[in-house]
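Consider the record:
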Amino acid sequence: MNYMPFNSVDHDRVYKAEDWAWYFSTFISNGVFPAPSDGLQVVAGDGMTIGVRPGYGFINGYAFRNQELYNLTISNADGSLDRIDRVVLRWDLTQRLMELAVLTGSPSKSPTAPALTQGADVWEIALADV
């Protein structure tokens, strides 16, 4: 049985991050918050860069906030084969972080976007395919 939060008396109530994550995950699902309407939108940048607009995300009870345009670099393409890269919001429990990242696809005549990791320690949400 779990219940919370109650005020601590002589430190008898100590809450960890995973306690709060459990609590929040009961009523907020994984995804990108709808306000602002362009939150975490991926946009073209200069050269081989893309930008991720300010916004909020939520994964497994943990919150993410991007406060300004965040630039990511896309690696150079193959000379003759196409590739699809995937921009993700990643929650990493082991590293204790949430981050924006690019999953680099494999060059192919029929490319597909890289698979998302969605496990107990790492969970990714796709923001865009490039």
Summary: The longest helix spans residues 17-25.
